[in-house]
């Protein structure tokens, strides 16, 4: 059939229709299914064109042996215009007045072996305090070994999962000519044509049935459950609602993009954790807050770039140890995220990898990492900075290391871990999140001993203030652990102390700040003094 650039709606607004939902293991809805099988759910007198359509039902489906062993279960939604039959054996049957939508209810996902956690140091006792016997301990360990062996065998294989929601949308496509030729292919698959020319060969129009769309965009992997031989019943929530044409186009495009994002450059399965996180953010976040999140993300990147665009050439007034600790902390966080990559999106992993690279780049730009032949090469201010830096870290270590030891012991006996490697990373990350503000204290101590803070031009100072504010806003808009939120407040404390130091030491504009910046007017004064000194020396020789 030749398709014209525009389609004419065959069903009219005001027509009424019925829905019969069939569930079986057939990939296509046959006439025998409609004729012989009883529908799992029916809805009568649905008004076509009604923008407030909303029908819901909760069903419980039986899981056959085939479905329990990776079989596929399908839903067949049969929409019939009132006054017509559903299958050919009925006298008033007309294929153009029947629309069928088939959709799989089971999804195949690569099984990921779960990370089993346990206490690394555990005393053999029951919950009541009674010690376990040797036989009980052996039986428990055997059950655990059998379970882990089966999970290892399934790891990486495609297995069936159940998603307990089915959302059917009746698209409000309007009564005007539908612009079929201008629609993308992802939309075409939902458009069913009516074979009116078979009845009227003289007709030059191409008609279309109503658009019935299965909205699967909000399906999250965390909402799906594994189907196995112990699964006896499958709960299903069905909803039929209306959907505007522009939303239909948006959902089609977004769903297509999401499926593409789950596949790598060479077709490998990258999983859906990243897209699931994006969907969760879209579903759980107020649209206004979502817009704010997008804007502050862009502003944060902009202000970071503007604040770091000018780096200094020496190490006067800058705590090199603090900068190195920054790199170490970012590296620990990155290793922790990779260790928990099953629950971490690729976007977060890439973002934190970039953070580690940037922190390393800051160290390279702030100080020449090549070996210095002797301490004479340092200026007096640089030597003082090194001395105060060592003093600050000396006293800070008296507090930091005992805290780390106490936190490690507490985690070892109270928290469950996957392995000793995970335990070490979790302890270090918890320490970084909780006590990370200490790495900024040496810089504050250096400022105090030098009785000076680096001069920051008013524009850059504004960038830092805005960046700190955006960090606070971002932490409460985005979903993240509470420890990470507290870490943003930690930066506020340091920033307030820095503001106080800038106020009491505001006379000195010659030392660089933590971003490696010095005042332009100070640089000009230094150059002028140097020129005057060079000009005065020949006169002294005379």
Average residue-wise pLDDT: 73
Which strands sit side by side, in order, in the main sheet?
A: 3-2-5-6
Count of distinct strands: 14
| Beta-strand residue percentage | 5-15%
How many H/I helices?
15
Distance N to C terminus? 104 Å
Gyration radius, in Å: 34 Å
Class by alpha and beta content = alpha+beta
Report the uncertain regions. 264-270, 369-376, 511-517, 524-532
State the helical fraction: 40-55%
- Which H/E pattern describes the elements? EEHEEHEEEHEEHEEEEEHHHHHHHHHHH
| Sheet of most strands | 4 strands, antiparallel
Which of globular, elongated, flat, extended, rod-shaped describes the shape? elongated
Structure description:
The chain is of the alpha+beta class and 542 residues long. Among the domains are: 8-107 and 160-268, no CATH class; 113-155; 453-542, no CATH class. The chain contains 15 helices and 14 strands. It has helices at residues 31-36, 65-68, 134-154, 185-188, 245-261, 273-284, 287-308, 320-339, 346-366, 380-414, 420-435, 441-450, 458-477, 482-504, 520-541, and strands at 8-9, 16-24, 41-47, 54-62, 74-81, 98-104, 106-110, 158-162, 165-172, 193-194, 207-208, 212-214, 225-226, 233-244. A four-stranded antiparallel β-sheet has the order 3-2-5-6, with no helix packed on it. A four-stranded mixed β-sheet has the order 4-14-9-12. Helix 10 (380-414) crosses helix 11. The longest helix has 35 residues, at 380-414. The radius of gyration is 34 Å and the shape is elongated. The termini are far apart.
Write the layout of secondary structure elements.
Blueprint (H helix, E strand, L loop, with lengths): L7 E2 L6 E9 L6 H6 L4 E7 L6 E9 L2 H4 L5 E8 L16 E7 L1 E5 L23 H21 L3 E5 L2 E8 L12 H4 L4 E2 L12 E2 L3 E3 L10 E2 L6 E12 H17 L11 H12 L2 H22 L11 H20 L6 H21 L13 H35 L5 H16 L5 H10 L7 H20 L4 H23 L15 H22 L1
Parallel strand pairs: 1-11, 9-14
Antiparallel strand pairs: 2-3, 2-5, 4-14, 5-6, 7-8, 8-13, 9-12, 10-11
């Amino acid at each position: 059939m030749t398709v014209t650039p525009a389609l004419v709606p065959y069903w009219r607004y005001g027509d009424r229709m019925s829905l019969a939902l069939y569930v079986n293991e057939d990939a296509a809805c046959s006439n025998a299914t409609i004729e012989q099988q009883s529908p799992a759910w029916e809805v009568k007198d649905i008004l076509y064109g009604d923008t407030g359509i909303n029908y819901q039902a909760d069903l419980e489906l039986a899981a056959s042996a085939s479905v329990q062993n990776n079989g596929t279960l399908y839903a067949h939604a049969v929409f019939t215009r009132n006054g017509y039959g559903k299958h050919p054996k009925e006298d008033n049957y007309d294929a153009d007045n029947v629309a069928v939508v088939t959709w799989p209810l089971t999804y195949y996902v690569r099984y990921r072996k779960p990370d089993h956690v346990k206490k690394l140091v555990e005393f053999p006792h029951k919950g009541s305090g009674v010690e376990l016997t040797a036989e009980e301990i052996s039986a428990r360990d055997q059950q655990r070994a059998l379970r882990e062996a089966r999970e290892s065998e399934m790891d990486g294989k495609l297995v069936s999962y159940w998603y307990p929601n089915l959302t059917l949308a009746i698209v409000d496509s309007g009564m005007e000519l539908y612009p079929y030729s201008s629609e993308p292919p992802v939309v075409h698959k939902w458009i069913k044509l009516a074979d009116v020319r078979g009845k009227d060969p003289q007709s030059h129009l191409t008609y279309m049935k109503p658009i019935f769309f299965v909205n699967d965009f909000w399906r999250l992997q965390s909402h799906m459950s594994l189907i196995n031989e112990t699964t006896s019943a499958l709960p299903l929530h069905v909803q039929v609602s209306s959907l505007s044409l522009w939303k239909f186009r948006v959902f089609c495009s977004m769903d297509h993009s999401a499926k593409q994002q789950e596949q790598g450059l060479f077709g490998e399965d990258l999983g859906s954790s990243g897209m699931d996180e994006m969907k969760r953010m879209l579903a759980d976040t107020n649209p206004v807050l979502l817009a704010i999140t997008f804007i502050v993300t862009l502003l944060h990147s902009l202000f970071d770039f503007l604040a770091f665009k000018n780096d200094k050439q020496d190490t006067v007034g800058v705590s090199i140890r603090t900068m190195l600790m920054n790199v170490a902390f970012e590296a620990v966080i990155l290793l922790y995220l990779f260790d928990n990559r099953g629950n971490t999106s690729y976007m977060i992993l890439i973002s934190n990898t970039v953070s580690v690279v940037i922190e390393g780049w800051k160290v390279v730009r702030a100080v020449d990492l090549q070996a210095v032949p002797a301490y004479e090469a340092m200026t007096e201010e640089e030597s003082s900075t090194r001395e105060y830096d060592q003093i600050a870290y000396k006293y800070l270590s008296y507090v930091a290391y005992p805290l780390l030891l106490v936190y490690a012991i507490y985690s070892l006996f109270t928290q469950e871990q996957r392995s000793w490697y995970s335990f070490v990373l979790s302890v270090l990350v918890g320490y970084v999140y909780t006590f990370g503000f200490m790495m900024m204290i040496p810089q504050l101590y250096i400022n105090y001993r030098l009785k000076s803070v680096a001069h920051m031009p008013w524009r850059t100072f504004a960038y830092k203030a805005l960046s700190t504010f955006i960090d606070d806003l971002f932490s409460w808009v985005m979903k993240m652990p509470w420890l990470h939120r507290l870490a943003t407040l930690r930066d506020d404390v340091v920033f307030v102390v820095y503001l106080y130091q800038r106020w009491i030491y505001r006379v000195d504009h010659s030392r660089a700040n933590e971003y490696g910046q010095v005042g332009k007017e100070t640089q000009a004064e230094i150059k002028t003094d140097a020129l005057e000194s060079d000009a005065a020396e020949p006169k002294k020789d005379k």
